[in-house]
Design goal:
single chain; 203 residues; alpha/beta; Rossmann fold; 6 helices; 6 strands; 36% helix
């Protein structure tokens, strides 16, 4: 199978190069290996100013935003017709997703308002917790809820585990790099997103 599509990954940690970045790299690497022709792009929100949506209505009729922060430069990447899938990775903060992840997802409202431009794009979620069961599933479900209202096709990490998405643990010995189970779910998610995106794109 070959498909000339792009999978964009967004690391929504406030700190650069940390566990969320690591598992997202694994997912994107697996996506590129799963389907010939797939390219990937990794965006880190760390160091960027992504404000929350103000519901000002400026994006109601075109892809623009009234806020002069670091979100508008991302619009072109996300509006690229070659976009086949979007993977969002977030660490678990207070049992849920980070404020950076929430702000990013809220600002995507412009894609819904302008003809559901993310419709049928494949969405996947990754979460990293300081504990093995530290809120990863709830974090993933919050991400998936935002993707569903965009009419995206939301996937799990696929077989053989096929739960909610990629779940990693950063609090064990060796950190997330030693969590082979968690890294495995991240790779499986990347593969699943790429394979389904290629099928939808071909159709």
């Amino acid at each position: 199978m070959r498909s000339d599509i792009k999978i964009v990954g967004v690391a929504a940690s406030p700190r650069p190069g940390q566990a969320s970045f690591t598992i997202l790299q694994e997912a994107l690497r697996a996506a590129a290996q799963a389907v010939e022709g797939v390219t990937t792009d990794l965006i880190e929100l760390a160091g960027k100013q992504i404000n929350g949506c103000q519901a000002c209505g400026a994006c109601a009729k075109k892809l623009c935003c009234s806020q002069a922060d670091d979100f508008p430069p991302l619009i072109q990447t996300l509006a690229d017709p070659a976009l086949g899938g979007l993977i969002l990775a977030s660490p678990v903060y207070m049992g849920g997703l980070t404020s950076q992840a929430k702000a990013f997802l809220d600002r995507l409202v412009m894609f819904r308002r302008n003809g559901f431009l993310l419709r049928n794009k494949v969405g996947g979620a990754l979460a990293v917790g300081g504990f093995r069961s530290g809120g990863q599933e709830l974090t993933i479900q919050c991400i998936q809820a935002a993707m569903l209202v965009q009419d995206m096709v939301v996937v799990s990490e696929g077989m053989p585990t096929a739960h909610f998405g990629g779940t990693a643990w950063s609090g064990g010995p060796g950190g997330v790099a030693a969590d082979e189970f968690g890294l495995g779910t991240a790779r499986a998610l990347g593969q699943r997103v790429a394979e389904l995106a290629a099928r939808l794109h071909a159709g």
